[in-house]
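Box 3.1 A note on notation
Throughout this textbook, protein chains are presented in two layers. The first layer is the amino acid sequence; the second is a token string describing backbone geometry. Keep the layers aligned when reading.
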Amino acid sequence: MPSNDGDVFVAEGNLSLNGNHQESGKHVISNGCSTLPVNGFHPTTNGSTINTASKDNIAIPVNAQPSFKARKLRVIVIGAGYSGLTLAHKLRYQHPEMEEIVETKIFEARSGIGGTWLANTYPGVQCDVPAHIYAFPFDPNPSWSKFYASGQEIQEYVQRTVTKWDLARDVLLNTKVVGAYWQEKTSQWKVEVEHGGVRREEYAEILISGQGFLNLWKWPDIEGLQSFKGKKVHSADWDHSYDYSKQRIAVIGNGSSGIQILPQLAKTEGTDVTSFQRGPTWVISRMSPSMLLGRADVSSNPEYTEEDKRRFKLDPQYHNQYRRQLVNRINKAFKMFVKGSPENTEATKFAIKQMSDKLNNDKELCAKLIPDWELGCRRVTPGEGYLESFLLPNVHLNQNTITHITENAVHTSDGQSLEVDTIVCATGFDVSHCPHYPMIGRNQVSLAEKWADEPESYLSLACPDFPNYFIFTGPNAVVGHGSLIEGLGWAAEYMIKWMKKIATEDIKSVEPKQDVVDQFIAYSDEVHKTLTWTGGCRSWYKKGRIDGRVTAAFAGSALVFQKLISEIRGEDFDIEYQSPNRFRFMGNGFTEFELDENNDLSWYIQK
């Protein structure tokens, strides 16, 4: 048994080492300051007293706290969509120890929670990812009505999940971030927010963007658009009060939203709809939705039967296996994105046949609507009812460039003009990844200026010159393949690892090295040359360009991304510490665990 010389006393957070002295002779280490003997001994090395004076100024007083003692961090998250909610759940339930480490605020500019699915409510809006893998992993939904869920059903599911898990606890609604500025002196982010017309400042050690990449919609840059006297509406700001029936409607754009809107407007009473598009896009169902359930339903979006939903609910293992099968097929399908691969060749043949069948093998329509560029160059969309709409007498196709718009007509490069009552702009979002508010990092670097030409990030998660700043679905994220929701979970785990390290190792700031990012981008660009995203199409993966870098999608499979970010790779970062000696976090020489006399200190002995 040890003598009393080694007794340890902890009182009110201070460590006392009793060197078998009288009470008046005890020395209590407080706030890391101690130059007196510890346990009655001067520290020595080989019999020589250690010189505490250091020419490099790295010898510092002993830190009174136990080793790895976490300090409290304030974390600000921008956005209460899937990203912010995933992080909120992980911090509270999957890593409950973080409740003592971080104080989190989630700022949401809108009046409700849901992100993309709260904002996008246009007719026909649905997710092009199978519903059963577009659920939070911690709360799978057995009750999806269809293989691909509508936006409304997704939003209802999100609301139920938020209520069930109390995820709104740290969310501040109607609170818009209007500026973020790195404070070098305090190593904090000053975040300016606006609520009810009043601005205030919030401060945090860590800032996280959960805004996603489809949050800032924009009007197309078409001469005269603002002079149009009829009804003008954007897909991301849909006017449900307007009566679209008996209207001559121009739908501009054939991305996901345009593909989903067109069939709905086509079947609205008395409409005459013209689709204006610069070129075709691949519209296919990439997997047989019913096959995994043992049915031969040919629908591109079949309904789940009541029996399906009952079994999913009563047999979680069966439900989990079904979800795993979906993810397995999606991950295996990544080979389809390799240029010239057998998988891409076979998938292209399949797509051509499927699209031709839906177009009733109409030669003219097939020639105009089936692309001649690589399958997968643009996002592949299921497009329920889209192709079939062009067989209707009230739906027309125009692939000439729009030159300008006047008060009542759309004019195209072939010299024609089409009078319309309503213009629907399904032209997507600003995919530059630049925030729409001032974001100023170290040395007054503006993120908007830094990313003006090409947005470049560290593994989609961080950016040089912006310390303690992390990003969900930043540039080159897993957005074109794999399971987006699972990817958000991987990213959240990565961020939590950094939070723990910063809090427990006395770290002031972390920032990816510029040369590391340069190497990541250079290698990614080479990989992208082998993938279909660099094909000959115009795509938001390339900032709306035909040529140029792929700035949106990760250069590899989802499984590569998962493995790559499973560790934080500290060697890729510049790490600045609170103290001139980075090992100050070693504290007083004890772990907090061993200072509790009830704990078993032999836990590491193998059984």
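Confidence is low (pLDDT under 50) at residues 1-54. The radius of gyration is 29 Å.
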